Amino acid sequence: MATVRLSILLACLLAACTLFLARTSFRADRLMADTRKDPYYHQRLEMVERQLRRRDITDPRVLEAMSTVPRHEFVPLKFRSESYVDGPLPIGEEQTISQPYIVAIMTQLAQVDSSSVVLDVGTGSGYQAAVLAEIVQQVYTIEIVEPLCARATETLSRLGYTNISTRCGDGYRGWPEAAPFDAIVVAAAPEHIPQPLIDQLKPDGVLVIPVGGRDQQLMTVTRSDSGAVSKNIIPVRFVPMTGEAEGD
């Protein structure tokens, strides 16, 4: 009887070991495939670990999105080797792609999920829109600089994003036809918060926006039944919002 039990135990252990080795081999093969397909794979994971997780980025959906989106695809070729550094990079037209941490914290502050519809003002390279699109149902994104708008549209299409709608134009007045939004994320700094953007939020919707001139604050504005509640988050440095915002 004892011999039979021992044989059964050994058989179970052997089966468990075989399953473990198979899973380990599968993960290793997948990792090697990911590395061959994406030479920046390890740099991106290191960026997430060192620049985001060790700071205050805790939302698992944001961390997963930042681990997934190939930031280097949104960076000009001459700066591609610096794609995952802890800072902004030039993308042409006197504009930049934001520091990874800033993209992550703005996404986290937006408090979005898989059912959310989001407006992204200031498409730039398209990177912020792509990160949002990994999490939410639909992203509407507007860029006032036409060459950047065209380039971002092409990049997002090439990378297979089907839940992002792009528009070339002034984002000061938002995207009324697609409103209301669960969240609005703005990547250019007006002197004052544009009222049309607040008006296009759903109840309890969140606007994430840098505000100010030389001294800027990243702010959240939450729409409630009693009005809009604003909160300062951190000092930041964004390009100024152009277009109608310049006359505000």
Across the major sheet, the strand order is 5-4-3-6-7-8-9
Q: What average pLDDT do the residues reach?
A: 88
Shape: globular
Strand content: 15-25%
> From N to C, what is the helix and strand string?
HHHEEHEHEHEEHEEE
Question: How large, in whole angstroms, is the Cα Rg?
Answer: 22 Å
Please describe what this structure looks like:
This protein is an alpha/beta fold and 248 residues long. The chain has helices at 2-37, 41-53, 60-68, 100-110, 127-133, 146-158, 195-199; strands at residues 89-92, 95-97, 117-121, 138-143, 164-168, 181-186, 201-212, 216-224, 227-236. The chain has a seven-stranded mixed sheet with strand order 5-4-3-6-7-8-9. Helix 2 (41-53) packs antiparallel against helix 3 (60-68). The protein is globular and about 50 Å long.
Topology:
Blueprint: H1 2-37, H2 41-53, H3 60-68, E1 89-92, E2 95-97, H4 100-110, E3 117-121, H5 127-133, E4 138-143, H6 146-158, E5 164-168, E6 181-186, H7 195-199, E7 201-212, E8 216-224, E9 227-236
What is the structure about, briefly put?
With 248 residues, this protein is of the alpha/beta class. It is 38% helix and 24% strand.
Main traits of this protein?
seven-stranded mixed beta sheet; alpha/beta; globular
